[in-house]
């Protein structure tokens, strides 16, 4: 087994899906968390000047979804057929489109960006949510297994569930119109390896 | 075994579908190249999984999202790198490119005539900073890869096609915009002179986008 070192900020955000893939696959990895104050020094050593980065026997891979797909594919967590894998990818990219719009509110709300949170919420948050989450609900209904693709958990289940719980926790009631999303998140988080990780992982907002 | 049927549906342009067309043509796979007018799209929208195009249908089964489509086809036909690690790097560079593309898209939409805007101001205030953030990285990547005519590894991958298509679009409307990145231009020129790709580019319909 290669030696895996995963570098990210001490948050869940875009990196948590990778940590959860490792946990679900029961593959060891070093969970390196770089504090903001230490980041400038480390930045130039990364391929794209960004995190997360995964080192595989010392060789880096940047970009969260490239990393996620790389590890998930090797451990049966990326769909059982090429077409299923493609649907996992499609939903991940759809989530990324959602996040690109939603962050216009979310980043102000979380304090990363300056701005008028209420105005941003009215302009971006609801339309982003209501464009994206119906697709998730529909996919859950059509797929019928309780998971988003196929009949077992894939990395898209990990991504969507963690993000939904984070949003719902910070914005209580925001996902009330999407109970299926909340139920899906609960199901994923009940998977023993994930439940254990959630219990033991560092607490971050 | 019998080859599946492929149908690709998109607007009448290159933009987010062209790489899929190129992969299929390079692999010599027949496909239905369906182009939807802006006028006809609204009534078709709700029949698609995500209300968006491009859409790939493989034996009638739908797959949305351009990169999912490109990666799926690239894997089937040998354009996704020579190892899992290389494939991950193809994915990583494509996602980095997508981050840049999201920033420059408002400028392109104005240039292509889909939105109103002050073209010169947008080029100066939006496109230029976006370029200056991303293209130095791409220039370094081309050089670090040995100026071998590819951005990752030493065989043609879908991220080569993605970047080459974008550079072509930029050159079509903003000539000289990328002149500070000779290694990128050199790499793109090598990509587009791949014989079968050159053939496709020469005979394809000319479109604004």
TrEMBL record, chain A:
Example GO molecular function: glutathione transferase activity
Organism of derivation: Pristionchus entomophagus
Any Pfam family the entry gives: GST_C_3
GST C-terminal domain mapped to chain residues: 81-205
InterPro entries: Glutathione-S-Trfase_C-like, Glutathione-S-Trfase_C_sf, Glutathione_S-Trfase, Glutathione_S-Trfase_N, GST_C, GST_superfamily, Thioredoxin-like_sf
Record protein name field: Glutathione S-transferase
SUPFAM superfamilies in UniProt: GST C-terminal domain-like, Thioredoxin-like
PANTHER family to which the protein is assigned, alphabetical: GLUTATHIONE S-TRANSFERASE, GST C-TERMINAL DOMAIN-CONTAINING PROTEIN-RELATED
Limits of the GST N-terminal domain: 2-79
High-level lineage: Eukaryota, Metazoa, Ecdysozoa, Nematoda, Chromadorea
Superkingdom to which the source organism belongs: Eukaryota
GO biological process, one term: glutathione metabolic process
UniProtKB/TrEMBL annotation, chain B:
Domain GST C-terminal: 83-209
Record-linked InterPro entries: Glutathione-S-Trfase_C-like (IPR010987), Glutathione-S-Trfase_C_sf (IPR036282), Glutathione_S-Trfase (IPR040079), Glutathione_S-Trfase_N (IPR004045), GST_C (IPR004046), GST_superfamily (IPR050213), Thioredoxin-like_sf (IPR036249)
Annotated GO MF terms: glutathione transferase activity
Enzyme Commission identifier(s): 2.5.1.18
Keywords, in A-Z order: Transferase
Every GST N-terminal domain range: 4-81
Catalysis performed (reactions): RX + glutathione = an S-substituted glutathione + a halide anion + H(+)
Enzyme class label: transferase
Keyword Transferase: yes
Highest taxon of source: Eukaryota
GO biological process, one term: glutathione metabolic process
Family to which this protein belongs: Belongs to the GST superfamily. Sigma family.
Name listed for the protein in its UniProt record: glutathione transferase
Biological source species: Pristionchus entomophagus
């Amino acid at each position: 087994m290669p030696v895996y070192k995963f570098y990210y900020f001490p948050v869940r955000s875009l990196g948590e899906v990778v940590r959860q893939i490792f946990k679900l696959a029961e593959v060891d990895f070093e969970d390196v968390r770089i504090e903001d104050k230490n980041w400038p020094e480390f930045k130039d050593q990364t391929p794209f000047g960004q995190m997360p980065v995964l080192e595989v026997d010392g060789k880096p891979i940047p970009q969260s979804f490239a990393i996620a797909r790389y590890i998930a594919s090797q451990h049966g967590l990326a769909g059982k057929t090429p077409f299923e894998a493609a649907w996992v990818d499609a939903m991940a990219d759809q989530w990324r489109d959602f996040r690109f719009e939603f962050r216009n509110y979310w980043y102000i709300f979380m304090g990363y960006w300056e701005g008028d949170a209420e105005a941003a919420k009215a302009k971006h948050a609801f339309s982003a949510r209501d464009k994206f989450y119906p697709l998730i609900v529909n996919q859950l209904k059509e797929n019928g297994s309780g998971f988003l693709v196929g009949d077992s958990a894939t990395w898209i289940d990990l991504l969507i569930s963690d993000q939904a719980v984070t949003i719902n926790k910070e914005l209580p009631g925001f996902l009330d119109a999407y109970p299926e999303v909340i139920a899906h998140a609960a199901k994923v988080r009940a998977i023993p390896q994930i439940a254990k990780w959630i219990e033991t992982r560092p607490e971050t907002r | 075994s019998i080859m599946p049927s492929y149908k690709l549906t998109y607007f009448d342009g290159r933009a987010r579908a062209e790489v899929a067309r190129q992969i299929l043509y390079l692999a010599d796979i027949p496909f239905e190249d369906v182009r939807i007018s802006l006028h006809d799209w609204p009534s078709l929208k709700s029949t698609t999984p995500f209300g968006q195009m491009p859409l790939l249908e493989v034996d009638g089964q739908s797959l949305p999202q351009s990169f999912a489509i490109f990666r799926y086809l690239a894997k089937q036909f040998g354009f996704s790198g020579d190892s899992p690690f290389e494939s991950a790097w193809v994915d990583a560079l494509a996602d980095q490119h997508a981050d840049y593309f999201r920033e420059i898209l408002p400028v392109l939409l104005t240039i292509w005539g889909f939105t109103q805007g002050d073209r010169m101001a947008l080029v100066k205030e939006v496109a230029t900073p976006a370029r200056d953030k991303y293209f130095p990285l791409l220039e370094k990547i081309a050089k670090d890869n040995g100026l071998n005519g590819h951005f990752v590894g030493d065989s043609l991958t879908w991220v080569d096609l993605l970047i080459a298509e974008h550079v072509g679009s930029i050159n079509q409307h903003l000539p000289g915009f990328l002149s500070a990145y000779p290694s990128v231009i050199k790499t793109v020129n090598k990509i587009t002179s791949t014989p079968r790709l050159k053939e496709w580019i020469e005979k394809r319909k000319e479109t604004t986008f």
